[in-house]
Amino acid sequence: MESILITGASGFIGSFLVEEALKQGFDTWAGVRASSSRRYLRDGRIHFLEADFAHPDALRSRLKEHRDEHGAFDYVIHCAGVTKCIDKADFERVNHLQTRYLVEALRDLDMTPRRFVFISTLSVFGPVHERTYQPISETDTPAPNTAYGLSKLHAEQFLQGLTDFPCVILRPTGVYGPKERDYYLMADSIKKHMDFAVGFRRQDLTFVYVRDVVQAAFLALTAERAVGRAYFLSDGQVYSSRTFSDLIWRELGKPFLIRVRCPLWMLKVISVVAERVAAMRHTMGTFNTDKYNIMKQRNWQCDIAPAKAELGYIPRYDLDNGVRETIAWYKQEGWL
């Protein structure tokens, strides 16, 4: 039985990766912190690797223990990371440096896997082709305008600088699905009769259902042409800014709805104030200047042709089907 380590296994995407690994018959190791919730990791076949990714010596020691008892992992999918932080410097510490610590430990301990898949993000590119609305492609120059995107870019650059490490990078656009909380907030707002939109200029949005990200990750484990490559992931469609909320509204039974469109200048003021208030309270606010930069971006199109050609990636969920399944899960779990 081939073994696989999935870091960030307790998170939204990570828990789906673990589910698929078990389905495919892998000897599945869930990389978690000691304090991580195991709510979505209850299958008795799951092995747990509790590791401190923040401290390289402790991480190396834990991996050595594992190697001596169980051997090296055949595959690693590195999904651990943060999308929200109280201190923006934590993005760099977690998303970049802890990726570096893991890879260096694997190499030093002669535990280099057959394939290492890194879950990155479309946000490493920032606002590209904002006037022409061309799809972002791998030949474009990354210019992230968020601390999150910059930290993921730094991790990518580290990995791409390794000539002897079999890495594949995945750059999904907005990932949604059951268990996800940011898009849930939109659904909750619509249920409470309020829908918010941002800006008045055209905005082209893209999405990818969580199970399609998982599909791509497992294809990347064995695709011959994938090593050293980075791939964008979406469902292959482009949507208007209102499509997502309209689909949620439909699945919620079309409740009475007040639609509010916020000008960008007002949104920026709100983001600055919210960020400062959160800093004073030392809390993680739901809205800040990074979130503003994401919401103001007008072009989220991306070219998934290389993923189709080289990974064999075929999106199985369009937004209609994905939203239907997601809202049904939220209702079933009592979130809505």
How is the topology of this model organized?
Elements: E1 3-7, H1 12-23, E2 27-32, E3 47-50, H2 56-70, E4 75-78, H3 89-108, E5 115-119, H4 147-160, E6 167-172, E7 174-176, H5 182-191, E8 194-198, E9 207-209, H6 210-220, E10 230-233, H7 243-251, E11 258-262, H8 264-281, H9 289-296, H10 305-311, H11 319-332
Parallel strand pairs: 1-2, 1-4, 2-3, 4-5, 5-6, 6-10, 7-9, 8-11
Helix pairs in contact: 1-6, 2-3, 3-4, 7-11, 8-9
For the structure shown, list the relevant keywords.
336 residues, alpha/beta, Rossmann fold, 7-stranded parallel sheet
Molecular structure report:
- The protein has eleven helices and eleven strands.
- By secondary structure, it is α/β, with parallel strands linked by helices.
- The protein has a domain at 3-179 and 206-236 and 300-316: NAD(P)-binding Rossmann-like Domain (Rossmann fold, 3-Layer(aba) Sandwich).
- The chain has a seven-stranded parallel sheet with strand order 3-2-1-4-5-6-10, sandwiched between helices.
- Helix 3 links the parallel strand 4 (75-78) and strand 5.
- Helix 3 (89-108) packs parallel to helix 4.
- It starts with a strand and ends with a helix.
